[in-house]
Amino acid sequence: MTSHPRQSPEDLALPQNGVDTHAHLDMPKLQNDIGQVLDTAAKSGVEYVGNVFLGPQAYTQNKALFTQFPQVFFLLGMHPHEAAQVDDLCLDEIHAAVLGDQRIKAVGEIGLDYFRDYAPHDRQRKAFQAQLELARNTDMPVIIHSRAAEEETLRILDQAAFQKRPLLWHCFGGGPDLAQEILRRGWQISIPGTITFAKAQAMHKAVQDIPLSRMVLETDCPFLAPEPYRGKRNEPALTVFAARKVAELKGQDTVLVWEKTGHNAREFFGLCR
After folding, report:
1. Residue spans per domain, the chain
2. Sequence-separated (6 or more) residues with CB below 8 Å from residue 187
3. Whether residue 109 has a cis bond before it, omega within 30° of 0
4. Residue 84's closest CA among 124, 128, 57?
5. Is 162 helix (H, G, I), strand (E, B) or coil?
6. In 3-state terms, what secondary structure has residue 2?
């Protein structure tokens, strides 16, 4: 059987105005290759990359990795897996970082994860609520992580009166019903590379109905590499394959999807052209 090479993300020849809104470049699988990874991303049309620091310790230790890369903006929050570590000191450190570093554009990823159950549910809820309050007090957008906990995530957000506030639902993987619940509250939806998976039928149906004006793209790298790189290390350049699949599902041109989602991301995060 003849082996065919994978299509390079550069082959799609997209303009350099796309945004990968959610990446973990400071994780060990990527941090030693940041320069090369960002160079490939730029050649593939990615203008900005949002790096997510999973807590103030990761931020303090790793922010210097990006000194030479102004195209990387920051997100900072405590992931629900680490909810047991969220205390007053942790929250104070996040608060100080958000106020002191203009590269931090949102509080996140925060929320609930009942799929892995790495932290007690009550601690997850308390950590989530505390960080929502922090985001409100600092007037920052919020990036939501919700897995196997969507109904409760929505309930907590409603109780905190976050309707119509700047909020991005990270790594959307649900169907049309969840998408409509998010949209009617005035929020944005981030589409990951898993949109390229053939079995993601509910997600495909949802994306067909999500207005392009309410959508951004992400990799969540080094995880969740899209087809045709599934199972390999993900990186920002591969955002282009999510754009191509969204365009296919919506019957639109890939360049249009790329440019519009990039525009949405720059607007949401306040990124300068």
Report:
1. 14-269
2. 167, 168, 169, 214
3. yes
4. 124
5. coil
6. coil
Q: Determine the Cα–Cα distance for residues 78 and 155; give it in Å rounded to an integer.
A: 20
Q: How many residues does the chain have?
A: 273
pLDDT in tens, 247-264: 999 999 999 999 999 999
* 143's tokens: 């990036």
For 163-208, what is each residue's pLDDT tens digit?
999 999 999 999 999 999 999 999 999 999 999 999 999 999 999 9
Q: Are the C-beta atoms of 164 and 177 separated by less than 8 Å?
A: no
What's phi and psi for 78, nearest 5 deg? Answer: -100, 115
Cα separation, 71 vs 23, whole angstroms:
13
State the first-to-last Cα distance of the chain, in angstroms, to the nearest integer. 47
pTM of the complete model beyond 0.85: yes
Domain 14-269 matching CATH 3.40.50.1000: the answer reads: no
Q: What are phi and psi of 57, to 5 degrees?
A: -65, -45
